[in-house]
Every structure is written in C-alpha cells, then in structure tokens.
From TrEMBL:
Keywords: Cell membrane, GTP-binding, Hydrolase, Membrane, Nucleotide-binding, Protein biosynthesis. Transmembrane segments: none annotated. It is found in: Cell membrane. Belongs to the TRAFAC class translation factor GTPase superfamily. Classic translation factor GTPase family. LepA subfamily. PANTHER family: TRANSLATION FACTOR GUF1 HOMOLOG, CHLOROPLASTIC (PTHR43512:SF4), TRANSLATION FACTOR GUF1-RELATED (PTHR43512). It is an enzyme of class 3 (hydrolase). InterPro entries: EF-4 (IPR006297), EFG_III/V (IPR035647), EFG_V-like (IPR000640), EFTu-like_2 (IPR004161), G_TR_CS (IPR031157), LepA_C_sf (IPR038363), LepA_CTD (IPR013842), LepA_IV (IPR035654). Residues 4-186 form the Tr-type G domain. Its EC number is 3.6.5.n1. The gene is lepA. This is Elongation factor 4.
Length: 597
C-alpha cells in the first residue's frame, strides 16, 4: 500500500468511555469482520480481559476502507490498555502510530485517565481527533464536554465528532476524519529495513509473535533479520496482519503494521522498542529504544497445597513468557513454605496474574500483603532494596529507610472533594495542587506508594460513589519513620503478614489487623492470642476464644445428606486454609486483614 493511503492510529480514553465499543463498530461497519463472526469486544482476546472489560496487551487490527474521495485506505488501529498500571504500554504503542482518536463520554466529561492517556499521545506528536461518545444518552452534553476538552487539555474541540458507538451514529464521520485529519506515515521503500518492535507475546502454536511497525524498507517472508539490541539473527518464517484474526501476507512495506514469527522461543528474547533490520545491508542507526517497565509492587504467591509448588512454578514461568514486566523469584516462608516473590506493575496487574494462575492452572493460592520496594540505608553506607518486609534487616544496622512516592492526580465532583482530601491526608499525602475543571476539582497529591497499593483505589471509589478518577506516576524516594510490624498468631510469628508501616500509624493499623484476624480465623478447640508487635514490643492484642459446639450439631441428627454436605463444605473450606503451628488460617485472611477502613 502506498504511504498516502495508510493511516495508523490509536484510541485513547478513560475506562468505560467506549473505546472497545467504538473499535468494534469501526471493524463492523467496514466489513472487516463478517457480521456473523462479530462478537462484542473483538479486540479483547483474553477471557479475563473480556470478563473484567479491560484491555491489557496492545491489540491491533487492519481495516480496509473506501473513503468518500473514492480511494482505498488501509487503517491500522492499535488498541491500548486503559488502566493506569499499564500506562507504560500505552506510551510505547503510541510511538508506532501518527494519530489518536480521543474518546470522551459526553455524559461524563474528561477524567484522570483521559488526561494521562492524551498526554502520551501529545508526547508522541500525534494529531488528535476528539470524539464525543454516547450521544444517544439523554444526559449527553456535547457542548460542555467539548469546552472542557479545550479548557483542560488545551486542544481544539470545535470539530469534535459526535458519536454513538452503540447505535452507530457518527461512525462514518469518524472513518472520514481518520482519513482526512490524521497524517499519513512517512518512510522510504528504498532505505534499509528499520522496523520497530512494538510488542510481543507467546502463542502456543506459533511461538513468539512479534508486532512490528515498519519505518523504512520492506520485510518479506524468508528474510534474515537482526535484532539490533543483542545482535541475534532470525529467519522470518511468517509475516502477516491482523484482520483482527492473523492473516499471512508476503510483504510489509513502510508505514505498515503487522507481525512476524521467526522461531523465537521466549518473549524475553524480544526487547520491546528494539529495532529490527536485515542481517545483510541493514541499517546501523537504531530507533531510540524504550526503557523497560519496572515492577513496583511485590507480593508472595504460595500454593495452598504444598504439593502444587511445581505446578505453580510451571504456571508462573509460562505466564512470564508472555509478560516481560512480570518478575519472580523463589521464596521460602517459615509459615507458608515454598513459593514465589513476584513483582508487578501495579495492583491490577497483580490481580490479573493471580486470577490467571488460579483459573487457567487451577492452583489455589495464598497471596501475601503487597509491598513496595524500600531503600534501606545501612549504617555502613550501603543501600539494600527491600522487596519483602520479612527480610527487614536488624534495626541496629539501619541508618534510615526511604520509600517510593507517587504523584496522584484525582478528578472529582466538587461535593466529594472534602472526602477525597481527607482520604489523601489519612494516607500521609501532601497536597501539591488544587484547581477546577468546570464543576470538578482536580487535586494533585504526593503520596507514599505503600499507602496506595493496597486499597486506595477502592476507597476512593467508595467515598466518591464511583465519581472520582485517578491516575499516578512515580516521582522518587523519600525518608520516613517506617517500621516493620509483625503479627503473631498463637505466639507464632506469621511472616506472610508482616508489613512496613509508618511509626505513627502502627498502633491503629496493628489494632485493626488483629481485630480483623479475630473475625477471619475460625475458632479452634483452644484459646488463640492474636498480637501485633514492633520489634519485641506488643502493640495490640486480641484473643479468639475456644470453640464449644460441633458444627453438625445444628442438623438435628436426622438429615444425613445435609450433614454430609455441611462436612463437605467444611472440607472445601479447609482446602483454602493453611496451618500455622496448631492454627488454621484461611486464605482470604492474608488480604482482608490488611484492608483499612
Ligand atoms: P475499557 O476497555 O475498560 O477501557 O473500556 P472502554 O473504554 O473500551 O469501554 P467499552 O467500549 O467497554 O464501553 C463501556 C460501556 O459503555 C459498555 O457498557 C458499552 O456498552 C457502553 N457504551 C459504549 N459506547 C456507548 C454509546 O455510544 N452509547 C451508550 N449508551 N453506551 C455506550
């Protein structure tokens, strides 16, 4: 395809503003997929993505469109994740395209992730076409939202397209705008091959699939190519495009987006952002690379049944094949036995991986408290990175502890502002800015990441009845008075429940945790003390009294099936518990105990 007839674009939006629905409609109205094969959310391929309605990996589709000018165009859409944990993936896929559709829900207006994502598009020098979606709804207020886009984002919204991705209004106008308002890609057919490695993932039939954007030159099936970062050479055995199903073709030219396979074994052998060129007569000028995404949240994953450790290893290794931002290493815990310490981009990423292990590999897991990375400055001048509170060195050798901080941007309707400020204040936040965007406040806070990783987002949603939106970026480390708090159940420390807390909050947190644990741990035949301690000092204590009756007693003896069912249920419940000394602690205790109210 000649360059003038190609348009490459992405869609940026806040979660739920209709990005996937719009993508579906563009695919459907251009007959890219026959109506009978059309299912909702074409681009969200993983089950979990579909269920949770979130897009995680970048997905691509090539759309053929005959425009009003009579010419045939190829439109390549790269769909990017909308969630804050995956901001990094958004920013890198943006570098592969020239323009963006900025989708804003016309009943809601600009949200925190609209801002974060549109800034990625602006950084990538995109031409941006604003799209006001959901105009079929009575609450749509296009004029107000257009004005807000101009005020808050600072881009011209006078020609924003009014769309209902649901009913199909404005879809034709959107396709025309892509052709007339977004620039064609640049590139040279005769120059040496320069292809950007945009993404890669593992496919059980084809091995590693590499998503590429051709900047210059041509890529053909059978070519020998070199990855410029590590110099490895590969024989290209397939190239093709996504319609959105993978379709093989013979050649990809400048400006085009497609895939290649080359018998590559592991996703780790492909560096996102790398430049791919020909082995012979290749370019010697690599594209500017991207920084790899760093995990920021760590937690331990342990099998409930110790016999499943090898299965867990297997599942983690398989998942890591496909996700270079997910890190893991083996860990042993006195309480939980063998498991893995894993690193994630954020909490959603953690949940997604945990769900996939439980669901796709059928392994029951105990997840320990998520932790961030602390810099422990030792008295001898060395710095240790602490990923796991259980490994906290002896305090006599510690000079000071630094913790990671984030800059959080929150957009919230005025009436909930007070609650949001209180929440941020309670989480040791420092207010950086407070401005208004129409009737909504935009607050910027400097917050410790460890106060956010756990349940900040849930709390924010609940105090604002779901009206707040949130986005964050890491800003660096700062010293604070942090201590390690241990939990003892029946006088045995449960290392998996150790957490780092601020000294001033230790008592409140400790009390809350032991109270929660008292409710979460079932009664046993004996009394169980539950304590929180810092160093050797107990700061909170509860006692779980001994059990009196047999659970089956209430079944009046008669109904044998009911009794059996109850015992079975009890057994299933047991399966999700682990023994600590003489005490069974249910799996959910490890997460629930840490939630703050
Ligand atoms: P993520 O994939 O989570 O980022 O969300 P998204 O931005 O892709 O939103 P999605 O397309 O899943 O739409 C969110 C919800 O809005 C869905 O329930 C859609 O059916 C609905 N929706 C999308 N477009 C329209 C529209 O034009 N009108 C109406 N009434 N509802 C819409």
């Amino acid at each position: 395809t000649p360059l003038e007839n190609i348009r490459n674009f992405s869609i940026v939006a806040h979660i739920d503003h209709g990005k996937s629905t719009l993508a579906d409609r563009l695919i459907q109205s251009t007959k890219t997929v026959a109506d009978r094969d059309m299912k909702e959310q074409m681009l969200d391929s993983m089950d979990i993505e579909r269920e949770r309605g979130i897009t995680i990996k970048a997905q691509t589709v090539r759309i053929n469109y005959t425009a009003d000018d009579g010419q045939d165009y190829v439109l390549n859409l790269i769909d990017t994740p909308g969630h804050v944990d995956f901001a990094y993936e958004v920013s890198r896929s943006m570098r592969a395209v020239e323009g963006s559709l900025l989708v804003v829900d016309s009943t809601q207006g600009v949200e925190a992730q609209t801002l974060a994502n549109v800034y990625h598009a602006i950084d990538a020098d995109h031409e941006i076409v604003p799209v006001l979606n959901k105009i079929d709804l009575p609450a749509a207020d296009c004029d107000r939202v257009a004005e807000q886009i101009e005020d808050v984002i600072g881009i011209d919204a006078s020609e924003a397209i009014r769309v209902s991705a649901k009913t199909g209004i404005g879809i034709k106008e959107t396709l025309e705008a892509i052709v007339t308002r977004l620039p064609a890609p640049k590139g040279s057919l005769d120059a040496p091959l320069k292809a950007m490695l945009v993404d890669s993932w593992y496919d059980s039939y084809l091995g590693v699939i590499v998503l590429v954007r051709i900047m210059d030159g041509q890529l053909k099936k059978g070519d020998r190519v070199r990855m410029m970062q590590n110099g490895s050479v590969h024989h290209v055995d397939r190239i093709g495009v996504f319609r959105p199903a993978m379709t093989e073709i013979d050649v990809l030219g400048p400006g085009e987006i497609g895939f290649l396979t080359a018998s590559i074994k592991q996703v780790r052998d492909t560096r996102v952002g790398d430049t791919i060129t020909h082995e012979k007569k290749g370019t010697d000028k690599a594209l500017p690379g991207f920084k790899p995404a760093q995990p920021v949240v760590f937690c331990g994953l342990f099998p409930v049944d110790a016999a499943e450790f090898e299965d867990l290893r297997d599942s983690i290794e398989k998942l890591a094949l496909n996700d270079a931002s997910f890190s893991f290493e083996m860990e042993t815990s006195a309480a939980l036995g063998f498991g893995f310490r894993c690193g994630f981009l954020g909490l959603l990423h953690l949940e997604v991986i945990r769900d996939r292990i439980e669901r796709e590999y059928d392994i029951d897991l105990i997840t320990t408290a998520p932790s961030v990375i602390y810099d422990i400055h030792m008295k001898d001048g060395t710095v240790e990175q602490l990923h796991n509170p259980a490994d906290m060195p002896d305090l006599t050798y510690v000079d000071h502890i630094e913790e990671p901080r984030i800059k959080a941007t929150i957009l919230v309707p005025d009436e909930y502002l007070g609650d949001v400020l209180k929440l941020c204040q309670d989480r040791r936040g420092m207010q950086l800015d407070l401005t208004y965007a129409g009737s909504r406040a935009m607050v910027v806070y400097d917050l410790p990441l460890n106060e956010v990783v756990f349940d900040f987002y849930d709390r924010l949603k609940s105090v604002t009845k779901g009206y707040a939106s949130f986005d964050y970026a890491m800003i660096g480390y700062r010293t604070d008075a942090l201590v390690k708090m241990s939990i003892l159940v029946n006088d045995e420390p449960v290392d998996a429940l150790s957490t780092m807390v601020h000294r001033d909050r230790a008592e409140t947190r400790g009390r809350a945790m032991v109270e929660k644990l008292k409710d979460l741990i079932p009664r046993h035949m004996f009394k169980i003390p539950i304590q929180a301690a810092i160093g050797g000092k107990v700061i909170a204590r509860e006692t779980l009294s001994a059990m009196r009756k047999d659970v089956t007693a209430k079944c009046y003896g008669g109904d044998a099936t009911r009794k059996k069912k109850l015992l079975e249920k009890q057994k299933a419940g047991k399966k999700k518990m682990r023994q600590f000394g003489k005490v069974d602690i249910p799996q959910e205790a490890f997460i629930s105990a840490l939630k703050m109210d």
